Amino acid sequence: MGATRGTTPLLQVQGLTLAFGGVTAIEDVSFAVQRGEVLSIIGPNGAGKSSLLNLLSGVYAPQAGTLTWQGRAHRRFAPRRVARMGLARTFQNLALFKGMSVLDNVLAGRSLYGRSRWWAHAVRWPAAVREERAQRQRAEALLDAVGLAAWRAVPVGQLAYGLQKRVELARALAAEPELLLDEPMAGMGVDDKLALSACIVEANRVHGTTVVLIEHDMGVVMDLSDRIVVLDHGRKIADGPPDAVRRDPAVLAAYLGRAATAVH
Amino acid sequence: MDFFIEVLVGGMLAGVMYSMVAVGFVLIHKASRVFNFAQGAMVLFAALTFVGLVERGLPFAASLLTTLAVLVLLALLVERIVLRPLVNRPPIVLFMATLGLATVIEGLAQAVWGAQVHALDLGIADKPLDLGGVLISAFDLFAAATAGTLVAVFGWVFNRTRLGLRLRAVADDPLAALAVGVDLRRVMAAVWAAAGFVALVAGLLWGARLGVQFSLSLVVLKALPVLIIGGFSSMTGALVGGLLVGAGEKLAEVYIGPLVGGGIENWFPYVLALGFLFVRPEGLFGERSVARI
């Protein structure tokens, strides 16, 4: 693996196709995610962005195509193994543990870590106690980083939507994922969008986390992304750096409608 | 005054017996939002199996361990065969499934071990102790201590350990739990195994008290008001609910009963539960559901 690192993409998607009955949501989509980059997948409503995310996180199984993770090809990602492989995600409509505190939500995000068994905790085994303390410290540090420390003990269900979104991001980052699949901006105000963007950039720059952003609004992701993939009606219509994508006639047509192409 | 205290304490100790059954419900409900009606059948199955093994000459400890193994296996099978395929169905579907399951387990238990009444002796004398002028049954004290320990241990696991955190995560949002890497199958297996263990403990204590017979599976009906009063997903609630129901029914029988011709002990807990449904539908320790509209 050592020799090929750098050239092998973290994730390679090849010929991915997903249909629900007669409706094709994703059709023959291929792209690669390089280590350490921020890749945004954008497209108008109904372009298939969320379906694609659900394929990448194992919620859906594709009818055709392969998903290659760190050089190993899979027919599909098994939902129970995705987190262990190093993928963490957020959800368009939030999937938080609403009855639990902010801190507990983030701690749940670290459920992959820690070796001690429950009975070791039960007898206050020193190693287990140390481990619990370390987990708690990491979670607290994350809360500080995303500006949630003040709400740590509040049940998540009582927070405003923008803050809940931030809790979800913190929980995903808590897993220290190789790849963060984030659908961050849906239904958010400008302040919240900026705060979230800052968190994502920090995770990428400081911790080297590879990020795939799913976003409807082209403007938001232009400054954040190294590369942009554009979907329309389930197909990939563009793939490249933000500036190139911004000028791409097919992208303009998809976003602005046929009239724009006529002028072009 | 001594008489009042005696009735109160006796009632509370009897109530703890209800708590023990309620704990089994809380375990499953907390982790999966399923009201497992078959918990009572599991109690019956446990007691019948244990008595059956003892009567066939197996030593006490060996019978206990074998029954525990059988119960855990039964619980795991139930989770695997009945509930896992029904995941993501509405709660009423799951409830109906456990209702059917209760009948199957009751039938199975009696098909294997027969339907006659067995005596069960745990070696704990059921004789009254004199504590400062108040007479208290030694057996009741033992049962109360057992139930108290169970509640304390489970409550601690739920709130203070990583297994508990995962459990609460699964209960709250299974999809999100999956996304953060919680192994749903392992968590559910742990919960059902624990519920099997609780059924065994309850089966032994109730079996020793009432004799091992079909009516053991009806103790679920006594656990119901306990759950409504305490809250369906709280260990502490199961304990406090049991104390309230036990004390309430005995005091009502002694002090109100004579005025209305007696025999109110059996239905008084349900009146109490009904009152709670009006005033505090989530129970004393239940999670108040937060709904945004």
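qc> Chain A has eleven helices and ten strands.
qc> done
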